[in-house]
Amino acid sequence: MRVGCSVEVNHVRTLVPAAVEAVQRGAAAAQVTVQEFDRLGALGCFEGRRALLLDGVILQQGPMDPPHANALEVLTEAVRAVFEAGWRFRGQTPLHLDQFNNPMPDLAVVAGRPGYNQGHPTVAALVVEVSDSTLHTDLTAKAEWYATAGIVDGSCGIPGGLWAARAMLA
């Protein structure tokens, strides 16, 4: 039996035993921690996927469409122009908010120099979420997680629901 990746259930059981055993019993899965999520990623379980961890549940986003990618590119350049040296611009990479949340924001601006960091950041000066198909989650659940982590909520967008960008400022 496989669990949606190239790792056998018996091997995964050592990584996330409560979750695997609950699924096998037909019960609701236990929460997966950020550390377990990272280990599963290192094993290749999410290869080719856009996985994220919210409230201990592993979710998968669909492929990024051109309007989303274009909006993210434009916003990233605009944000880079505002920040001075000493900031890293991380696109769709881990941001460990707490033990059960790694939301993989579209853009996170964090202090430091690129490439010289031991672990994933846990705080950000700015988080941007570009929303098209994920608008509801970005406006509700993700905004709450960012606020709980001390990142203050703000937003900007294009009327008509084509997309909206949420900027969470620390």
UniProtKB/TrEMBL annotation:
CDD domains: DUF820-like. Gene3D superfamilies: tt1808, chain A. Pfam families: Uma2 (PF05685). Residues 36-151 form the Putative restriction endonuclease domain. The keyword RNA-binding does not apply. Keywords: Endonuclease, Hydrolase, Nuclease. One of its GO terms (molecular function) is endonuclease activity. The keyword Hydrolase applies. PANTHER family: SLR1083 PROTEIN. This is Uma2 family endonuclease. It comes from Gemmata obscuriglobus. The lineage of its organism: Bacteria, Pseudomonadati, Planctomycetota, Planctomycetia, Gemmatales.
